[in-house]
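Running this now, will post back.
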Amino acid sequence: MLFASFLGLGLSVAIVGPTFQDLATNVNRNISSLSFIFVGRAFGYLSGSVIGGLLVDVMNYFLLLGISMLATTVGLYLVPFCKTAVLLTVMMCVFGTSIGILDTGGNVLILALWGDKGAPHMQALHFSFALGAFLAPLLAKLALGPTASAENCTEADFHHPALNRSSEADSEALFGVPNDMNLLWAYAVIGTYMFLVSVILFGLFFKNSSKQEKTRASAQTSRRAKYHNALLCLLFLFFFFYVGAEVTYGSYVFSFATTHAGMKESEAAGLNSIFWGTFAVCRGLAIFFATCLQPGTMIVLSNIGSLTSSLFLVLFDKKPICLWIATAVYGASMATTFPSGISWIEQYTTIHGKSAAFFVVGAALGEMAIPAVIGILQGKYPDLPVVLYTSLGASIATGVLFPVLYKLATSPLDHQRKENRKSEDQKALLSSSGLNEYEEENEEEDAEKWNEMDFEMIETDDTMRHSVIETSRSSSMEPTAEIYNQYPSNALVFESSPVNTGSHMKHLPETRTKGTNT
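Update: finished.
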């Protein structure tokens, strides 16, 4: 259901571009004066990311995602009925808020379900978004049919008398049936899809509400890196440069190819398509790569690919073959960085709603700020490939930031390993000292047993001595001949007994001395 949600998210975000001409016609404005609806949507997306980060820590995941999907459905149904530019901008802001909540909540839910083992699932989640963004123009093409492109429409086209209504007329009708019903069908199809997904998410909420508490209980005892805040700040900058460069190249590569590289419009469109095509394909392949490669390894490979390809773009900016190859490599290199970054940071510190919202806001700010600045610079310096310089600069920035991130994330682990080794040595010493005490106790027990055996032997020798004495006395009263015959044997017995007794008496002090020394 998460993948289905992000498929709808990609459809919802990307449908605005192909239908922008029809939206402008619907509110009787030209394209240049209606571009601020994207600012409204971006502002709503930022707000939604923050709100989603706060709510995802206190609300049920499925309930929050279901509400955001339902709000997106309402926005998609109402956008074609907006008849004023101000109302359309407000609706886009609300629409952006709902998709911001959905984006933040979906990423956090993937981490909550699979943790640091969820790299393939994270790649699949963002591939679903790319797939939706790829399908949206096709859906718009089927619904709207062939229309004039935005580049071929001039401002005079929008000042037709039939379309130029007065401000009073605009104020009378805030909502109305769209001029082109195909526009309504394009948004209604996506809205219906989002509604169905939201219903299933609400069903999951009622079914799995008890499991949510178990997930939160396990998350409360999760790990936290020593430099948690520093890692989040650097990741904020990392995603700021990465997403800004991605959106900038995808937005300006067409104009760069036509004005700077001298390509035809069809060739420039193909160059733009190959960038997003390799981007989407590699996100799909990354699902399988993530099962055998660590997220950090994938980030390093992506950084190497983006740095190499952007360098070739700068060096060979007017050679078509190099532009085609380097653009394809650049799109493939940019595909896995964002989901891999989220999976990588989860290995070292647990990401909750607020943390996810923080770096998602960084990505959204990069998406807003960098393309706007590059558009201004490109207008001032039309002879310079500012877009390519931006790609190279962002690749250098991400290539420098990630080793710093890795160092901060792993240095406490090295210290922890040393502490674990010390504790293991202490346990080994304690166990060896316990073994020595056990051996000493066994020796003391053996000494006590030997002493008892010595006392028993002494008592036995005393008994034998008394019996010999009694026998000798009785023998003295017998005839002399018998005394003469028995004397040697009795004497031997009598003389041998004191010797044996003395030997045992000498053994006793030695045994006690041994026990005392022990």
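Confidence is low (pLDDT under 50) at residues 147-171, 475-518. More later if anyone needs it.
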